[in-house]
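Anyone opening a protein record will find just a pair of labelled lines. The record below illustrates this layout.
***
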Amino acid sequence: MNPTDTNDAPTLALHALAWTLADPARARRLLDLTGLDADALRGSAANRGTQAAVLGFLEAHEPDLVACAAELGVKPETLVAARRSLEA
């Protein structure tokens, strides 16, 4: 999976969300830590706050951050910068 524009924070966050949800244990941890349920996550996936939360979730667990970045073909710092952009 490669985002077409790695400078587009919302697109990058959605790709990161898809990567996160591809693993059931990681998806459950995301839901548990954010307090969202699957329906709420689906309904708010386009929300910048939710997108920032997904990236923050990855940032809080470096192995996931590094693995997701590698899968998306970006540097971990790019995901961190995207979160900051979404929070601004």
In short: The chain has six helices and no strands.
